Every structure is written in structure tokens, then in C-alpha cells.
Amino acid sequence: MQLDYPGESGKLCDHLLKVESASGIRDPLLDSLDIITDDIEYLYVYFWDIRNSIGGSGFGPAPISATELKAWSEITGNKLATWEVNILREMDREYMKYVAEENDKKAKRQKANAAARSNVKHGR
């Protein structure tokens, strides 16, 4: 897999590292860059373009809806085949699962830290 963004300067790997630095969320692609072949790498770029264009619900990211996929396709002129939509939706399911797992870990850490502060405050 080439690590260059199609049509942009810079390396995909560099971009992913910046995203990780800014959000604290590590993209699994950094650990296995060879899983995406050159012929479908553009779907990864599409995914993040779509994902970054939608808002969250106030409780984290919202799943990519069919309406958002259609709007993105019309705005960009990138017509998606059914199999491409299926891959993008599967990528989004995995992303949402990953975010939920990371949020659970964060909540557990916060709960543990609060308990530790409480124990210190009360001399335990």
C-alpha cells in the first residue's frame, strides 16, 4: 500500500499520526498498513472524508447514514457502487465499535481515578 494520499502531498501515515495526536484515538491501520491494497485505498480516504464531514450527537460520533453517503456522493461527484457502500458501512461499524470501546476504557479510568481521589481525601 502506498502511504501517500491520492492527489495530496504528505503521507497517509503522517496524517494518521496527527489524528492520533489530536484525538487520542489510534487508527488500527497504523498497526497493519498492509491490510489495505492499493486498488481499494481510495475507500479509506473516502471514509475519512465522509466521517469528518458529519457531526456527532453530543455523546460521540454518530454513524454514517445513507442520507449522508448520498449527499457526499452528490457533492463530490464520487458515484459509489453497492459494494463500495457496503465496505464503507462496514468500516463505519468497526469505527463506531472502536470508539465505544475506547470510551468505555476512558470511563473506567475516570471512575478508578475518582475512587482513588476519594480514598486519598478520606485517608484510606
What is this entry, summarized?
The protein is mainly alpha-helical and 124 residues long.
What are the salient characteristics of this protein?
124 residues; mainly alpha; 4 helices; elongated
Number of helices: 4
Order of helices and strands: HHHH
Number of strands: 0
Oligomeric nature of the chains: single chain
- Proportion of residues in helical segments: 55-70%
Poorly predicted runs are 1-9
Number of domains: 1
Q: Biggest β-sheet, characterized?
A: none
- Share in β-strands: under 5%
Q: Radius of gyration in whole Å, from Cα?
A: 18 Å
Mass-distribution shape: elongated
User: How confident is the prediction overall: mean pLDDT?
Assistant: 80
SS-derived structural category: mainly alpha
The first-to-last residue Cα distance is 54 Å
Question: Could you walk me through the main structural features you see in this protein, from its secondary elements to its overall organization?
Answer:
The protein is 61% helix and 0% strand. The protein has 124 residues and is mainly alpha-helical. The protein has one domain. Helix 2 crosses helix 4 (82-121). It is elongated, with a radius of gyration of 18 Å. The termini are far apart. The relative contact order is 0.09.
Would you spell out the secondary-structure blueprint of this structure?
Elements: H1 12-23, H2 41-53, H3 66-76, H4 82-121
Helix pairs in contact: 2-4
